[in-house]
Amino acid sequence: MKKRKRNSDPLPVDIIVEILSRSSNKSVATFGLASKYCASIVSRQDFTELFLTRSITRPRGPRLLFSVKNRHGWCFFSSHQPQNPDTKPSLVVKADFLKGFKEFVCPEICGLVSSLLLFTSIRTSKMQVICNPSTGQYRRLRQRKKINFTRPLLGYDPIGKQYKVLNICNPPYGSPYEEEGIRSLPTTTGELSWRKFWFLTHYPISEGICINGVLYYVAIVTGGMNKMIACFNVRHENLEFLKAHAITGNESSSSNKLINYKGKLGVISWYWYGFDGRPRSALKLCLWILKDDKKQEWLQHNYNFPVNVIVEGDISVVGVIAATGEIVFSMDYTFKRFFVFYFNPERNTFKKVGIQGFEESENQARVHTFVDYAEDFNFIR
């Protein structure tokens, strides 16, 4: 029998990239693990950019990401992000299971930046992990010995296409009002390098949010114990501070969240208040938007919600939908029924959306919710 001649010509890389960019995260992850050659293709910058663009524009669109912390580790789910949910009388969406992690147990999430999550143990500051919840990839970041860090922060330089982890270390007792900032910078070879800088002594007390290459976070500046908003330029690697009227001017019992409000820095504060003998009769929401960062001018909007339109209990503001400007609340813990709430400031409408898919999680597991999550294949080397 005559053997068929085998065609050994490889498929052009540009065709492979085109095919993979239209595939699911699971398929791309499987392909990347097949060989070193396959891994080199999915780690190409042009592929990751194309895949991210199509993940945002494809029918699935931006999604909600749920990070559930239980005694075994972390589980990740994502669900459809309803557009204009206030136009529908009742809505329930299904959350799809993405990945589960038992290999590392970092109790705190320090934020989501461009589809990557940063985890740490704030109590010990000895472990930091970056992971992609869609692909299941993660990497431990090595730590400097004999240095105690505060909360780490993750930023992204959209021009240089580079992630940077900002670590602020505690200054020794009696040191001047400056401290050493140490950052790990992933290089093109996948190696992590450290650089040292000196900044005004301050202590991050919130998650960071990265907007157009600037990493914002709330910090306490020593000397006056005043809360300020730190602004770290990820590309140029300099640090400035904004007066935090949006933080210090509200009720002491309020919770605060830095948000991206239509490309501008925003701060949302919320707290329960009571009347007619009821301790929790309504929820008050204060929205501050940075109008001019040079003049440090803010716009303020106040809203009130009666208890009959919202779940009384542990809820938090988790972000703002970029396409609609809707402010999103989420329950903080799993329960028999889990809800996400959408508030449209322009229409003054409030809608409750049920989320299904957490039934297998144990009771009272902590949930961190993120908006506008785009499934991306950022290959962590």
TrEMBL record:
Q: Which residues form the F-box associated beta-propeller type domain?
A: 63-373
What Pfam families does the annotation carry?
Answer: FBA_3 (PF08268)
Q: Which PANTHER family match?
A: BNAA05G37150D PROTEIN-RELATED (PTHR31111), F-BOX ASSOCIATED UBIQUITINATION EFFECTOR FAMILY PROTEIN (PTHR31111:SF130)
Protein's name in the database: F-box associated beta-propeller type 3 domain-containing protein
Q: What is the species of this protein? A: Eutrema salsugineum
